[in-house]
Amino acid sequence: MTGGLRQGLRTIAGAAHPAVLALLVATSAHAVQPDEILPDPALEQRARDLSKGLRCLVCRNENIDDSNADLARDLRLLVRERLVAGDTDEEVLDFITDRYGEYVLLTPRTGGSNWLLWAAGPAMLVAGLGIGAVFIRRRTRATEAGLSAEEEERLRQILDR
Amino acid sequence: MLNELGHFALVLALAVALVQTVVPLIGAHNRWPGWMAVAEPAANAQLLLVGFAFAALTHGFVTSDFSLKLVTENSHSLKPMLYKVTGVWGNHEGSMLLWILILALFGASAAWFGQALPPTLRARVIAVQGSIGLAFLAFLLFTSNPFLRLAVPPLDGGDLNPLLQDPGLAFHPPFLYLGYVGLSMAFSFAVAALIEGRVDAAWGRWVRPWTLAAWVFLTIGIALGSWWAYYELGWGGFWFWDPVENASFMPWLIAAALLHSAVVVEKRESLKAWTVLLAITAFGFSLIGAFITRSGIITSVHAFATDPERGVFLLAITALFMGGALTLFAARAEALSSRGVFSLLSRESMLVLNNILLAVAAFVVFIGTIWPLVSELLFDRKLSVGAPFFDMAFTPFFVLLGLVLPLGALLPWKRAKLARPVRLLIPACVLALAVLALTFAIQTGRSALAPVGLMLGTWLVAGAAADLWARTGTSGAARLLRLQRSDYGRATAHAGLGVTIIGIAGMLAWQSEDIRVMQEGDSVTLAGYTLSLDGVERVQGPNYISTTGSFALSRGTRTIATLYPEKRFYPVARMPTTEAAIDNGILRDIYVVIGDPQEGGGWAVRSYVKPLANWIWGGAILMAIGGALSLSDRRYRVAAGARKVPDAVAAE
């Protein structure tokens, strides 16, 4: 049903498409269920953290921890199964990625073409600071021109209007 | 009949928009006063026509006229009246009509409040605004006509999505659109100034109130949406970095940058080209937002195929306006050279830094939002970019921004010495570090989120207080009452940012959660609070059936409140919703959700203690109030120009 909830969220901007609304039909599961929770709190916490980084494949951009879809529940149980079997966090993620593809990871991997994504922000910051520094340097060296007489007159006209 | 008249009014509005675009532009080019004067009546006629069409559609919804396809699909005769009205914009076609209505409203306001503008600039601003209206009216009429009739009207409608039947969300779209569309004014001013070939201090001063108003509306709209998500979606999340949310956040960031750079244009005649570019980009992001939300291309590539016509049309509008404006910008760039001289240590430099950080932050959100699409198209790699990426990639820029903000607000223009601002900020700095140490001490073994967030928030709030204190000069507290409203506005908005940061950090770092099956009579203890389930009953609402739990909330022996979380089912839409019960507090929210009945008896119950939750929206309200205070300052009134500038340039 959370698929439905998130549809609603998407409708915030006003675009509820009939085809989308058709998907809103109820299912009755509800995010993490009491019967899913592991007895070991440390293990359960790891499961929750991992779940927050995994995408519910039938929903739109929602993690399996928040999702109410049946498939999300299956994935949550799978994560817990692997943890109980003694997998490390990385092993669990690899296990799931092998079966469902990279699409399931909400944190994109850094390898391959994705370095562009991860480097984009810092690169822009460096570029921005560089351009800003050049601009400020030029401003510090320029001499103040002041307004020409004609401009002074125009400004006065505008402000006195 | 009324529906056909509404449809006809839209067609007339399209014709008027064409006149409003073409005639004043030609008039301004040739300095023909008569042609330029067409702008004002055209803008007014445009508003009247679109307003009439909107009223006609509202009438259709209010009277449940199921011969209208749109009403049938999105309304129901049993729906409460409030949601019949708000249902007008709870769908694609109606919300697009609202968008156009607001566009026309801004065009007409430019005509009403723009009396002080030079006639050619005024004619051009209204003409550019008219051209945007023209594009969107064509979009509405050719791809999304709200007035389509059904040959055989059904007896009743399909109901509005129950999630949207909520006061928080009912008023979220109008505010958001006032913001999105308000940025079209900054765009129109930028393009008009480029056509004129003149960007000066006066231009900076005219464009600022429009941007400020748009930013205030965007702030309120985003906060309402986030608040709604918090109480309605059932687990208390307030921000998901969803493409649709990002679509509203990017214009907000760029508008914030534009607000600050327009000050530099106005007071120091610098950063002109950059400011014009920001004004164009801000509206560009609004258009991209419309495209993202209405084509479905980003959230699901397949949704694009369901309605290629709309997506392509919106993409064409975006390309046309951005391409046109940027080409014009490139052609006129040399007319936009900076004049003011300033040193590295000055308010100008700090505002440049502010703009770099805000623009980079917006860019990170943008690239994260479109990356799944880019990656699939270019690298054939299907992947997701979700909240963890944005948290990691976006937050550092805002932390940096928060760190430098109080200093930047205190530095004087042109050439500054560090001694005075630093002396003024020492108390704020000490306080922030004390909060850091305290937070670090009381929380055990958890992340740095809370200490850093609370420190940053305290630094911003205390910095805003120092900013106000600094304005009093030597005359002390007595002068606090006589400060300019824009000074109060600036301090309030900056403090609001701090409050929001404190809220986000506190809630994310310290929230505690409990999920369990509860029978009637059971109780649960969470973070010192006791919650006991007294009973569950079924209640019949106006258009839903509800399972309502009754929980007694207490701490020690003291009873605090009784909470009634609901699980509702809307039979017409065949859709359940959760209505969380929240005990709001200044320091914490108690949040209870009742889930499904369990096989062995009892109900699944989720309860949360969410520290500082309300600070998130409280801060947003402060930011909006700050913007409104600044807007109400005489010097920045939309119609400003009646009075001389007392100290606009003299802040040295």
Outline the structure in words:
The complex is a heterodimer of chains A (161) and B (652). Chain A is an all-alpha fold and 161 residues long. Chain A contains seven helices and no strands. In chain A, helix 3 packs across helix 4 and helix 4 (70-84) packs across helix 5. Chain A is elongated. By secondary structure, chain B is of the alpha+beta class. Chain B has three domains: 1-160, Four Helix Bundle (Hemerythrin (Met), subunit A); 197-323 and 343-413, no CATH class; 513-613, no CATH class. Helix content of chain B is 62%, strand content 11%. In chain B, helix 9 (172-196) crosses helix 12, helix 16 (387-410) packs parallel to helix 18 (449-471) and helix 18 packs antiparallel against helix 19 (485-510). The N and C termini of chain B lie far apart (65 Å). Chains A and B meet through helix 1, helix 2, helix 6 and helix 7 of A and helix 6, helix 9, helix 10, helix 11 and helix 12 of B.
Question: How would you sum up this structure in a few lines?
Answer:
Chain A is 57% helix and 0% strand. Chain A is mainly α.
Which characteristics define this entry?
heterodimer, A: 161 residues, mainly alpha, 57% helix, 0% strand, B: 652 residues, alpha+beta, Four Helix Bundle (Hemerythrin (Met), subunit A), six-stranded antiparallel β-sheet, 20 helices, disordered C terminus, membrane (chain A), CcmH/CycL/Ccl2/NrfF_N (chain A), heme (chain A)
Rg from alpha-carbon coordinates of chain B? 26 Å
By CATH, the architecture of the largest domain in chain A is named Orthogonal Bundle
Mean pLDDT of chain A: 76
**CATH fold title of the largest domain in chain A:** Helicase, Ruva Protein, domain 3
Helix content of chain B: 55-70%
Helix content of chain A: 55-70%
By CATH reckoning, the class of the largest domain in chain A would read Mainly Alpha
How many helical elements of chain A? 7
* CATH homology superfamily of the largest domain in chain A: Cytochrome C biogenesis protein
**% residues in beta strands of chain A:** under 5%
Could you give the count of β-strands of chain B? 10
What is the SS-derived class of chain B? alpha+beta
Function (chain B): Required for the biogenesis of c-type cytochromes. Possible subunit of a heme lyase.
Organism (chain B): Primorskyibacter flagellatus
Main location (chain B): membrane
Family (chain B): Belongs to the CcmF/CycK/Ccl1/NrfE/CcsA family.
